[in-house]
Specification:
This is Sugar ABC transporter permease. Keywords: Cell membrane, Membrane, Transmembrane, Transmembrane helix, Transport. InterPro entries: MalF_N, MetI-like, MetI-like_sf. It is found in: Cell membrane. There is one protein chain. By secondary structure, the protein is an all-alpha fold. It has one domain: MetI-like fold, CATH 1.10.3720. Helices cover about 80% and strands about 0% of the residues.
Length: about 300
Amino acid sequence: MSSLTVQPAYKRNKTYTWLFYLLPSIAIMLVFFIYPILLTFFYSFTNLALTGEAARELKFVGFDNYTRMFEDSTVTVSIWNTLVFLIGSAVIGQQVLGFLIALLMKHKRRFFRRVIGTVVLAGWVTPEIVCALCLYSFFSDSGTLNSIIGAFGISPIAWLFTVPMLTIILANIWHGTAFSMLVFQAALDDVPSDIEEAAVVDGASRWQILIRITLPYIKQTITTNMMLVTLQTLGVFGLIYAMTGGGPGTKTTTLPIFMYNQAFINYQLGYGTAISLLLLLMGIVLSLFYIRSMRD
């Protein structure tokens, strides 16, 4: 009987020890993640503001902020701009370009890989605001790009006004491609070389090896990298704000830019938090989609 009573007590102590070691992580999650989300969710149902009568008295306004949000045509424009920026700079730009660079560097000499890797990494290690200023100088009316095309007799183009979305997409590609390149480099190095050599012996072309061996083998890495790059790109703010400020007009106004303008320019914090939850919802939906893709 004594042995039967000691074993459950030991198991309980083991469970308590396990929970004790997790307490710091749980506390950090509650303070810096769960609590801010709950607070944001609460403020989205209030008239919280920095100025005016609403700043003196906090009131619960129900779904007024959400009703206003879906009646605001700028929200629709912001969602569309966010999706265009996301697909152009993350899904197509960073993902495809990062994979191509990693693929071209595979089996190359170490010196070549170091030189190319350093050049690509330069954009990634550069702070976002510095990157924005560099690309702003490159695309400005008297910038580097117009100087280059001017040498061929082409008239200067106001890139930041004629194709503003393209400029911020290219800027974000330059800034973030290195991450995808590093991820794919590690994945491609893990592809068994004996399988590729056997395919070559069987007469497979490089294209067939890529489609039928390489891509299926690193499918999980592709999906994981896509999810990480997508979530990072959804929150891009400083790069766009420094280059275009969301303009001209609303041509580059993404959800983070629109949220900032409403919360800190128009001082409507309640409305701004409602927009932030819309951005959070987009991230959750896309994450669930990628997780489902990995499971399939």
